[in-house]
């Protein structure tokens, strides 16, 4: 075996082995052999320690969530990931509890919240139980532990969360809380044991959370409801302090509780029944929106209303700015939309579904590299692994996953998912993950067949949905998406050293491209032979991205994209990207502003699911954020040329803007760029990271000079040799240079 291939496979195997825990001595314990839905059970143990140690690692698993206290101190507010890493197994958390343990007697209490139902993002195990394993084996879960049901928690009547959500509503009757007798637990055995099976280590950080915060301004009273404003669309757990007589029912929900006011799309809410006197409460169930609503009947005296913000543990570290305030607002709203759609996994929306639809995820992954810090890469890797680990027996891929009540393939979204994996690889250089997914992707792509003319046979899957909207040329999209996905597989096949499959893919790619050009080009644009609708903007854009459309045919495609408006926000990202690829940044920005103006101008801090009046859609939909990536990648002009930013490009495409710039985190470090047009040229500022090579493209007109850090790099006689800058060449109105020495640089053309 070639040494390079051996090393790559070894990296992959090490990545796999690190996820599984195969030495378990603790036991699964519980109270019931079968568990009711929305069940709350507390578990406890006491043990004596002879000394205090700085580091004591513990592993915890349950279905569905838990809260951990040690010596009356809250250690974990929301533990456990939704099941599962694959259709049968369960995640476990690992945490250092050493800082919370004392010399002498220590008490651990864990409250578990068992949802007990399926969802688009959770596989129900069917049983409430707990597993706790510690380096100090005196704390290991076994029959020395005790448990008790928490009678104050109940299932509220009325509207329930829609079937897409595994989460339940929360009901708490404060008068029923108290000292309930601890009971002996049953022993369900040492892992692996059904129904939890193998245990896989949590592969993303614990969730980020704030302290309790005050709302913006004073509550607005509407009847018996107090409406409190959040600073932006956020994931929150509302809290209150009140004085009240016993028996008053309080409701907590947000403005996003019902999508479009439809009870069939309900999200989660909380009920609280008061006891006598002063009391305080914070719901354990996160919800999201721009406003929190407290339904408080007469008799309740409010002491304070607050909320705790939480979410995926990443910083919103990316920045974009330009001379166009509308684009700045759009970028910022996309960043907020992205963040509110991240937690256990990526979402399409955080209220009615909380589900990993891969058409949305492909867009989200691209945004993270410009909007967030590199912690987000762990969530992208989890999403990628989840997709292939849930591959069906017939080799099809489907999402959302993890899934208990869904298994329908959306074929074109699965090809888009492969495109999203390529984005992840280019920005991270994570070869091990690409090798891990390779067998599954190879099996999946084999399901797509090529007919005798050389075109792709349409694959309906479980849900034939290339996009929302009308005038969808599905066959042309099939061919374009297939070529895009096959090119990704070609890259991975070459990484894997699979020369035979690489050669097969090259042949298939060429065959599909030639057939699509032959049979789909009509009147200078592209339409599949049997398609009867208006010429599809999204399908022509994908044909450009796939490399089906040769450059000499770009002008007619550009003319089409300046007028056709069929794509939803999901596919609009690819329409806009095709304009940038065809070197039409002015047209791209003009269309971007035209299509998104309503979202730019509205009152929300996040982006709508649909263009126009958004009837029936959410106001925080992940697939709408594509402009964030495009503004950073093309307008600011920063993109990796080799996986993991060992070589990257800085080539701004002003598109009529007088200035723009961005800052974002990469696996190599923090990159900042700025450009501004001057009276006689362009000025570009950038930094070069250690261990990287940067290609810089500066807009250039014949006869201009180029200075780098105030020294000539190009003059009328040609390249002016220097040690820190190498000249590459001229192409399409740009002059290209190479930088390898770290530091800050200023390029000027005049």
From TrEMBL:
Superkingdom in the source lineage: Bacteria
GO MF, any single term: hydrolase activity
InterPro entries, per database record: 6-hairpin_glycosidase_sf, 6hp_glycosidase-like_sf, Bac_rhamnosid6H, Bac_rhamnosid_C
Pfam families tied to this protein: Bac_rhamnosid6H, Bac_rhamnosid_C
Domain Alpha-L-rhamnosidase six-hairpin glycosidase: 318-635
Swiss-Prot/TrEMBL keywords: Hydrolase, Signal
Domain Alpha-L-rhamnosidase C-terminal: 637-706
Signal peptide: 1-20
Protein's name according to its UniProt entry: Glycoside hydrolase
Organism of provenance: Chitinophaga qingshengii
């Amino acid at each position: 075996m070639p040494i390079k291939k051996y090393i790559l496979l070894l990296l992959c195997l090490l990545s796999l082995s690190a996820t599984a825990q195969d030495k378990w001595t603790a036991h699964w314990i519980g109270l019931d052999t079968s568990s009711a839905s929305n069940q709350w059970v507390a578990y406890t143990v006491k043990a004596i320690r002879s000394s205090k140690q700085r580091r004591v690692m513990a592993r915890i698993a349950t279905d569905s969530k838990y809260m951990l206290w040690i010596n009356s101190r809250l250690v974990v507010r929301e533990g456990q990931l939704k099941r599962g890493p694959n259709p049968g197994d369960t995640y476990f958390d690992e945490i250092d509890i050493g800082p919370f343990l004392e010399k002498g007697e220590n008490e651990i209490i864990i409250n578990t919240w068992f949802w007990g139902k399926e969802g688009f993002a959770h596989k129900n195990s069917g049983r409430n139980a707990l597993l706790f394993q510690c380096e100090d084996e005196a704390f290991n879960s076994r029959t020395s532990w005790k448990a008790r049901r928490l009678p104050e928690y109940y299932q509220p009547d009325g509207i329930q969360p829609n079937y897409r959500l595994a989460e339940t509503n929360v009901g708490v009757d404060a008068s029923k809380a108290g000292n309930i007798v601890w009971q002996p637990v049953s022993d369900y055995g040492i892992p692996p044991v059904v129904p939890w099976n193998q245990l896989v280590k949590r592969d993303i950080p614990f969730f980020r959370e704030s302290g309790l915060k005050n709302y913006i301004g004073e509550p607005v009273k509407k009847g018996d409801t107090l409406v409190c404003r959040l600073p932006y669309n956020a994931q929150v757990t509302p809290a209150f302090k009140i004085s009240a007589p016993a028996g008053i029912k309080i409701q907590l929900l947000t403005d996003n509780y019902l999508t479009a006011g439809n009870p069939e799309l309900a999200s989660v809410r909380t009920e609280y029944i008061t006891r006598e006197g002063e009391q305080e409460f914070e719901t354990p169930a996160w919800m999201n929106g721009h406003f929190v609503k407290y339904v408080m009947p007469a008799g309740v005296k409010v002491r304070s209303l607050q909320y705790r913000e939480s979410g995926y543990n990443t910083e919103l570290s990316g920045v974009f700015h330009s001379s166009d305030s509308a684009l700045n607002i759009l970028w910022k709203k996309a960043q907020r939309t992205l963040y509110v759609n991240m937690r256990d996994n990526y979402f399409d929306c955080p209220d009615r579904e909380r589900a990993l639809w891969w058409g949305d995820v492909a867009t989200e992954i691209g945004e993270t590299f410009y909007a967030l810090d590199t912690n987000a890469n762990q969530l992208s890797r989890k999403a990628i692994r989840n997709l292939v680990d849930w591959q069906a027996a017939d080799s099809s891929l489907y999402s959302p996953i993890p899934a208990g009540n869904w298994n329908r393939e959306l074929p074109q979204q699965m090809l888009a998912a492969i495109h999203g994996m390529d984005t992840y690889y280019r920005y991270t250089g994570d070869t091990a993950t690409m090798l891990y997914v390779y067998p599954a992707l190879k099996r999946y792509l084999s399901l797509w067949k090529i007919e005798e003319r050389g075109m792709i046979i349409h694959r309906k899957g479980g849900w034939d949905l290339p996009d929302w909207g009308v005038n969808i040329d599905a066959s042309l999209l099939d061919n374009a998406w297939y070529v895009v996905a096959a090119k990704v597989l070609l890259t991975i096949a070459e990484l894997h050293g699979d020369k035979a499959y690489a050669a097969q893919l090259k042949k298939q790619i060429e065959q599909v491209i030639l057939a699509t050009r032959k049979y789909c080009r009509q009147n200078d644009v592209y339409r599949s032979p049997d398609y009867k609708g208006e010429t599809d903007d999204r399908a022509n854009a994908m044909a450009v991205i796939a490399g089906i459309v040769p450059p000499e045919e770009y002008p007619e495609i550009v003319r089409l994209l300046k007028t056709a408006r069929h794509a939803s926000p999901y596919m609009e990202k690819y329409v806009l990207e095709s304009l940038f690829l065809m070197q039409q940044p002015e047209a791209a920005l003009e269309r971007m502003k035209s299509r998104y103006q309503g979202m730019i101008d509205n009152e929300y801090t996040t982006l709508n699911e649909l263009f126009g009046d958004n009837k029936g859609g959410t106001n925080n939909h992940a697939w709408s954020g594509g402009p964030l990536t495009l503004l950073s990648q093309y307008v600011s002009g920063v993109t990796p040329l080799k996986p993991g930013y060992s070589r990257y490009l800085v080539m701004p495409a002003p598109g009529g803007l007088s200035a723009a710039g961005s800052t974002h985190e990469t696996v190599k470090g923090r990159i900042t760029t700025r450009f501004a047009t001057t009276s006689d040229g362009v000025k570009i500022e950038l930094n070069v990271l250690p261990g990287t090579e940067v290609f810089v493209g500066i807009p250039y007109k014949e006869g201009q000079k180029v200075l780098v850090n105030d020294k000539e790099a190009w003059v009328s006689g040609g390249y002016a040799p220097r040690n820190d800058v190498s000249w590459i060449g001229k192409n399409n109105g740009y002059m290209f240079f190479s930088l390898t020495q770290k530091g800050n640089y200023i390029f000027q053309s005049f």
